[in-house]
Amino acid sequence: MFDLSLYLVTNSGLCGERRLEDIVEAAVQGGCTMVQLREKDLDTGTFIARARILKKVLAPYHVPLIINDRVDVALAADADGVHLGQSDMSIADARRLVGNKIIGWSVESMDDVRRANELDVDYIGISPVFATPTKTDTAQPFGIEGTRQAAAISKHPAVGIGGINRNTIDSLRNCGLAGVAVVSDIMLADDPRMVAHVLLSKMQER
Asked: Which helix (H) or strand (E) holds 96?
């Protein structure tokens, strides 16, 4: 079984002069329990190569690698799973291709949450919880109460994503989430290990 407690979603544009794999490894050493490689602008070959590097980095820590959107990349790199959005490949098609690998699905409304209950997914990503500059093409934020309601009606474990950081995570402590996904607060940190440790500690205070 996998642990969704602290789910790092990467953004290579936030790395600066640092290597993505170094940030990811530090974050995992600090307590990240799952990593999603999100690359919107890479060609397929480079995406696969980067996924293989991260899989090798994560293997000693037994932390799953999830690929955003791209089932083909997940299969080529033998990642642990794939995370799909509303406009990506259908869950049924993805399941046929990936077998028993992990499938996550982004939900953007209560109707999506109810629809997810009928799908063969392993977890849902409630998106966005708060407004975030990382993604500007998202639906209306769920907010704290909406997140609580979505987690309550979901048959699947739920992860909150969007605007979650050290300042906002406390407000989600009693929302019924299996975990939180974090992007900028870890990717931009001078010390990703420390930030991950603080975030996980806050989640474990539930």
From this structure: helix 91-98
Global pTM reads: 0.95
Cis link prior to 128 (omega < 30° from 0)? yes
pLDDT of 69-126, one tens digit each? 999 999 999 999 999 999 999 999 999 999 999 999 999 999 999 999 999 999 999 9
178 and 2 Cβ atoms separated by less than 8 Å: no
Residues with active-site annotation: 38, 106, 135
Q: Are 36 and 67 in contact (CB under 8 A)?
A: yes
Nearest one of 145, 146, 150 to 178, comparing CA atoms: 150
First to last CA, the chain: 21
d(CA 4, CA 15): 23
